[in-house]
Amino acid sequence: MQILTIKQLEEYHASRKELLLVERQMMAMGEESHQTPRLKERLEKLTAELDMVNDYIDSLDDSLSRQLITLRYVEGMTRKDVGAFVGLSEVQAGRRIKSLLSVLPDS
Is residue 107 part of a domain? Predict the structure, then answer.
């Protein structure tokens, strides 16, 4: 089983957009395209990466932790906006997020 990295978490928002783009390309090209196998492979890789992030979020013990990570990395909000959303200051939200990330490898 692969371990989630901070880099993968930080790239979640962009990867989700890329997934939608690849799906759109596949629909436009159709099944007969010679690029379809390569796009399917990319789609599978992106889906696996996004699943790892979602599994990590699901594994967090408390609702606040899940909200902080989801808002920051899935929704792409700033620490200030995350803090405001959950009722913490920007500094408090940043510290809590940093603590949650401390168990993950950098890359």
Answer: no
Q: What is the DSSP letter of 2?
A: P
In a domain, 57, yes or no: yes
Q: Write down the residue that tokens 């500094």 correspond to.
A: 91
Q: Are 34 and 84 in contact (CB under 8 A)?
A: no
pLDDT by residue for the chain (107 residues), tens only, comes to: 578 889 999 999 899 999 999 999 888 887 677 777 888 899 999 999 999 999 999 999 999 999 999 999 999 999 999 999 999 999 999 999 999 999 888 76
Burial class (CB in 10 A: 0-12, 13-18, 19+), 31: exposed
What pTM did the predictor assign?
0.83
